[in-house]
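Handout, page 2. Input:
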Amino acid sequence: MATELQVAARALYDDALIWDDHSGFGPDPSVDLNKLSIWKDAGINYLSIDVGYDRMDWRDTVKSLAAFRRWIKASDGYELVGTVDEIEAARRAGKMACTFDLEGMNALDGSVDMVEFYYDLGVRQMLFAYNKNNAAGGGCHDEDTGLTTFGREVVAEMNRVGMVIDCSHCAYTTSMEAMELSSAPTIFSHSNARALRDHERNITDDQAKACAATGGVIGVVSLDLFMTDGEATEEILADHIDHYVNLVGAEHVGIGLDYAWDDDANDDGGNELAETIAKNRDYWPARQYPDRPVRFLPPDCLPRLTEILLERQYAENDVRAILGGNFMRVARQVWT
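Output:
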């Protein structure tokens, strides 16, 4: 029998807007997007879907974007949205709202003009570099070079068109310069606290404070490597939320699970992502990514996470903000 706290947590979760700011499955036209039901069935109201990252040629990113757009627009339970009002309308209609994101600016092919092109096709956030340096700035596993002239031009253009600046996967200096330069709130869509787990993909307290100072939000991420070494639990995810709440306030914390379903799992524990990492050590260096399966918390972890936050004496309004209200606030401020 459910406890009183479990009943209260479920009621709060069912009534709140649930926002996952980044999916982790591979951007590829052949992806089975019927698997989006994993998020929808978990009660997610909005999901930002990755359509490209720096390992890809920009033309393959466009192909993924075209395929994903076509599938979502033809679906019954999902809605491609461009405004916060459309997110709310999709929720009322029982549909999961979707937009897209880009992990790294190789997708721009060196042209600032591509920012508005992607925005018009549904991309609402973009980060500078995916782990390695590129023409815009530095990645978290590479030399910390900061923003380039091109990267600074892109910041201005993203501010102009209403695309959210995302600093996940970026080097420290690149992220700090971008947040200082931006005239709009910035985010870390999926980055845990380096104070709790010393991994190069996680962010320092200074980065989190700089993000909050812009009015932005930091999304906690569900990969075990970024929570602790080899373990993924709702309690550990809540520990990262606690850290950020104590550091910058509940109004600057959100959810970006980076979840990727695993069609390639087997009894030995292997998975597709682990194989990709092992074959591309330039993007995922062995010093940070051991040869073993990667574990995630799936979207249906969020009701239990809600319960844990209430157990830890979080106010209901703060829980609602963390589950989705904070990222929605940023979208309302930034999207045009």
